[in-house]
DNA sequence: TGTAATGTTTACCAACCGGTCAAATTATCG
DNA sequence: CGATAATTTGACCGGTTGGTAAACATTACA
């Protein structure tokens, strides 16, 4: 009998795990490159190296595939922000947050583009995730930053917009990679632009947030 | 006889100007919301208030429409950077550049999203524009910024990444509007977030780039 | 006003796309 | 092995999409 994926309650087969992994990997590749509408099931199937009906045996619809992919990626995507430590040294925490985010832009550009595509198109599938868990996490960290500012450890600033600006500057190197490369020119073929970006962003944010001559 | 748009060499009719204007306006609306693949010609025709064949009488293909739209918008999109004045006061120039870009994110979010979509998908249609005119303009302004740094008027920094970070932070409020709203919550329904962002970004960039006690 | 050029519409098509079905193949396990 | 369940495939389907053909309507202008 044919039992589509959603109906299986028992333990998952080795084959199931392997195939679902391969499918999500292929889906990430295709969705991140063409967006939800732009991606076709045939394309994903081809990248995954299997036939379309076979793929649809594991994920019954294109949307189910996309949903599974988003939820999986969103979780790991927020890890850097979760590591933000209220007890650590403020300047050091912000610096390492920037560095972590930039490393993710370098190492997981497809994941970044997947989200960018999703948000750009109005986030039809993850609006609840944004207003719920994401907002809660940001609220929590914003409170931490605000307390640092009040304690005089960093300059006073709007913590939400600080977070937004860290997100945007770092993810820019994944989402707008084509533009960055075009402007920097051929000579920046390697990962050098990420190191340059790290230097610049550290300077910008750290200097911009430091307390200057607090006593005088 | 039917002479499609591309073949017309003579002066354009009043009707042509009106209709092409309406079409490009509708195309901007739809493309910016759904991306190239996600947009349909029927949708654009409906928004433009005309039949699909009628629309295709002015732009023979969907791609031609998209190309026309991109070229037109790209030109005005770069105006703020062009206004960057080498002879002005460095700090004031950077401040007003940030403000102009933020105003564009507020007043022309569709244009911003159109580009974001295009770049995200690998900029298949405008790669030449990026590597040519855009790069040339950025190179020119980067040289200006570098000269300011050398003259000790602003802190030393990579001018390219400075420009990138201004682009990304400001455009973020157009491209990721849904996320920004979700995180900030309902109370920020108006344009308040743009004023908050302006204050924050000015503080960040100006403080981050000022020369601190150069003499001491 | 007459007429040729321009503009608009209805009906249509071929390609594509997400998804189904039933049959065939392969893995699992007593 | 034998049988039952899980997996894979080719053929197919209805709806959508970009685009066309040709008849019809309107405008510009001598």
From TrEMBL, chains A, B:
Record-annotated DNA-binding residue ranges: 40-59
Keyword terms of this UniProt record: DNA-binding
Top-level taxon: Bacteria
One Pfam family recorded for the sequence: TetR_N
InterPro entries in UniProt: Homeodomain-like_sf (IPR009057), HTH-type_TetR-like_transc_reg (IPR050109), HTH_TetR (IPR001647), Tet_transcr_reg_TetR-rel_C_sf (IPR036271), Tscrpt_reg_YcdC_C (IPR013573)
Segments forming domain HTH tetR-type: 17-77
Keyword Methyltransferase: no
The protein's name in its UniProt record: TetR/AcrR family transcriptional regulator
Protein's organism: Mycoplana rhizolycopersici
